[in-house]
Specification:
single chain, 374 residues, alpha/beta, TIM Barrel, 12 helices, 8 strands, 43% helix, globular, Polysaccharide deacetylase family protein, NODB_dom, Glyco_hydro/deAcase_b/a-brl
């Protein structure tokens, strides 16, 4: 049994850590163990859960004035922030309960957590001794979770004026909350850039790996493919995969006058040309959509497909290794969810194989795209 402690002084500077431009990433080589068994996945998961809980505990003490200053925003939606913080605590408690089921096999980061109050207590007094086996991980992890939490808080602060994946508008919107523990769904956005197009490489890689994912395509991209190649070629390209829509072009669907036509045209095209692959899902570009669109999506028989885990591979500010390691850290933290990669970023060709290799023996599963969101 390894005894885990923590230097509380680390957290005194939390409010000064993350600038608005920071994107959280964590060098996984600071973690001393490979995820070569479900038990070791749980050890790493408990560690990330407790560290995130520790930094979340610090923000709970911030009032509206302090949060505005901390996030660098003039106005914030305090109700949305409070809702987010409550939801995060409930998710952390649920995840820790799953992660502590293997404590009889390895007691690292195991504490008697029976309810939310005891989770908060244990997170509040978490300390790491200088001789701890995990000491090299602790400070980088703290910084990661402080920055990542700021990402979430900033989105909540701006919601719903700036809509995002941070919250749902109704039961017609889905993310990874309904997945079982240790299950993850791969999804791939088209994004705005035209090249590179890694779809042929990616679909072949997934088929060879006996895996699949959900591809959210732009109507104009499918139209362009059909202008160059046959329908049979298009169907062969997406063989074994699921295809949803992201609209006719990659632009915000929250203030676009023709957003409904964008969705309908894309659905008609994809459903007509890829009937075996089509799934009735709409992925809003950048998560931006209207809050009063529920009736439209229900009438169209569509669900809005959001996500929980963002590799941040679209902005080009993280290299492939950083994107992959960020994704793995969030998988350990949330233990289930929808991963949102960008198919038009070359980082994907490095990040995805690394991620699958790192988790091959960890006991996680990859959800079949044909049963997800049902």
């Amino acid at each position: 049994m390894r005894i885990v402690l923590l230097l509380s002084a680390w957290f005194l500077s939390f409010a000064a850590i993350a600038a608005p431009s920071d994107i959280a990433t964590l060098d996984r080589s600071t973690w001393p163990e490979q995820l070569t068994s479900p038990t070791l996945f749980d050890v790493a998961s408990r560690a990330e859960i407790l560290m995130f809980a520790r930094v979340l505990l610090d923000t709970d003490a911030m009032d509206e004035i302090a949060l505005k200053q901390h996030l660098g925003l003039r106005t914030i939606n305090m109700a949305a922030i409070d809702t987010l913080r409550a939801r995060l605590w409930q998710r952390l408690l649920s995840n820790y309960n799953f992660a502590q089921q293997s404590c009889d096999q390895d007691a690292s980061f195991c504490f008697l957590v029976e309810d939310l109050a005891t989770l908060r207590e244990e997170a509040g007094r978490l300390t790491l001794d200088e001789n701890s086996y995990y000491i090299k991980w602790a400070e980088p992890s703290r910084i990661f979770h402080a920055q990542y939490l700021d990402e979430l808080l900033r989105k909540a602060a701006l919601f719903p004026q700036t809509s995002s994946e941070i919250a749902r508008f109704g039961d017609y919107e889905r993310n990874g909350d309904d997945l079982n523990d240790r299950l993850f769904l791969l999804t791939f956005d088209s994004a705005a850039n035209i090249t590179p197009d890694n779809t042929p490489w990616l679909t072949e890689y997934l088929r060879k790996s006996n895996m699949n994912g959900t591809f959210f395509v732009l109507g104009k991209d499918i139209q362009a493919r059909l202008a160059e190649r046959s329908v049979n070629h298009l169907q062969a390209l997406y063989s074994g995969q699921c295809v949803g829509v992201q609209g006719w072009e990659f632009r915000s669907h929250s203030h676009w006058q023709d957003w409904q036509d964008s969705v309908r045209r894309s659905v008609d095209l994809v459903k007509g040309k890829l009937p075996e692959n089509y799934v009735p899902l709409f992925r809003p570009p950048q998560g931006q959509r209207r809050g009063d669109a529920g009736a439209f999506f229900r009438n169209q028989g569509l669900q809005v497909a959001l996500w929980d885990i963002d590799p941040q591979d679209s902005a080009g500010r993280l290299n492939p290794e950083q994107s992959a390691q960020r994704t793995l850290t969030l998988m350990l933290l949330w233990r289930r969810g929808v991963i949102n990669f960008n198919v038009k970023q070359d980082a994907l060709k490095t990040a995805l194989p690394w991620l699958i290799t790192q988790t091959a023996q960890s006991g996680i599963g990859w959800e079949d795209c044909r049963v997800a969101f049902r």
